Amino acid sequence: ATNGGDGMVKELNALQELVDKAAPKKVEKNIEGASYCPNCKVVVANKNIINDLNYCHYCGKALDWSDEEWK
Q1: Is 35 helix (H, G, I), strand (E, B) or coil?
Q2: Does residue 40 contact residue 61 with C-beta atoms inside 8 Å?
Q3: Residue 53's pLDDT is what?
Q4: Nearest to 58 by CA among 27, 32, 13, 33
Q5: For residues 64 and 6, what is the distance between their CA atoms, to the nearest angstrom?
Q6: Residue 19 and residue 36: Cα distance in Å, rounded?
Q7: What average pLDDT is seen over the chain?
Q8: Beta strand pairing status for 63-64 and 25-26?
């Protein structure tokens, strides 16, 4: 690389972020029972909203709903 190793390090970091975002992670629950994104903590489902998406609508993190009763 013409700019030393910095360009490649940035590219590798960006690639790792994409891999991390694409790897599904189980949704988490708060004390009210709402499900929220484990990455950005935004509520993605609650008793009034059922989320049919396999990713967070806010940050794009892939979500694993396998433990949810209504899925």
Answers
A1: strand
A2: yes
A3: 81
A4: 27
A5: 34
A6: 20
A7: 85
A8: parallel
